[in-house]
Design a protein that fits this description.
By secondary structure, the protein is an all-alpha fold. The protein has one domain. The protein contains eleven helices and no strands. α4 packs parallel to α7, α6 packs antiparallel against α7 and α10 runs antiparallel to α11.
């Protein structure tokens, strides 16, 4: 497994687009957190809410990143060499999922840590500090975990679609259209356990409401979707690719 993870790292660092998306995601978190915390916290704005504002954009970027981590290999034909060296599809998908989770976790941690350092400096210049309470800690924890799962979920979707455009379209369509329709026309309870409703419920301070009142339960539901889709993707890959 360690050799597979090293291989994923080599492929990851040799391509420019993942780094660009991570840089954009980090920049968005930094900009919104500085604006929300450093300027508006003196007016009573919850710093956890300032962090949660960026969650939708960052989750979308990390999902897209996850899709591309595997779909780009199909696009450029490098997946053939990968399957030649690693004929065990389940181990390959597992390695990609583990690597994707690590990428998402590290990206979120860097974004949040950098944001709080810069925001604290700016906040001090306004004569106030960033209050750290239980809600903020829960929001940061849920944010980081949701970020890691988002990359893994994107990889799972990419293993099913094998096409970046199709995978990204499926993710965005479900996130912004299908889940809203289910919530409105079917039931709130059913809608709350759908993947992206669970993703946003993982972040306590988000403005998107869900029937999952406990953020760590929402994290487990979101992770279950990633694992379930990865199993489906593995079965499909084993049947059509080797």
């Amino acid at each position: 497994m360690s050799a597979l993870l090293r291989g994923e790292w080599i492929k990851f660092r040799s391509v420019r687009s993942p780094w660009v998306m991570i840089a954009v995601a980090v920049a968005v978190v930094v900009a919104l957190l500085i604006a929300g915390i450093a300027v508006d916290s003196s007016k009573g704005r919850d710093p956890a809410e300032s962090l949660a504002v960026s969650s939708t954009f960052v989750i979308v970027l990390l999902l897209v990143l996850g899709v591309q981590l595997i779909a780009q290999e199909y696009r450029f034909g490098t997946i053939r060499a990968t399957f030649t060296s690693v004929p065990d599809c389940s181990r390959l998908i597992l390695a990609k999922m583990i690597f994707g989770v690590a990428v998402g976790l590290v990206s979120a941690l860097i974004a949040i840590a950098g944001s709080f350092v810069v925001a604290s400096i700016v906040a001090n210049s306004y004569g106030h500090s960033i209050p750290i309470d239980a809600r903020l800690v829960e929001t940061v924890s849920g944010y980081v975990l949701a970020a890691g799962i988002s990359v893994a979920l994107g990889i799972a979707v990419g293993s099913i679609t094998r096409n970046s455009a199709l995978g990204i379209t499926a993710v965005l369509l479900d996130m912004f259209v299908l889940e809203s329709l289910v919530t409105v026309f079917a039931s709130e309870g059913l809608g709350s356990v759908l993947p992206f409703r669970a993703a946003f419920a993982s972040i306590p301070a988000t403005s998107i409401r869900s029937g999952l009142s406990l953020w760590f339960v929402a994290v487990l539901v979101y992770a279950a979707w990633a694992v379930g889709l990865a199993v489906i993707g593995t079965v499909i890959v084993e049947r059509r690719d080797p």
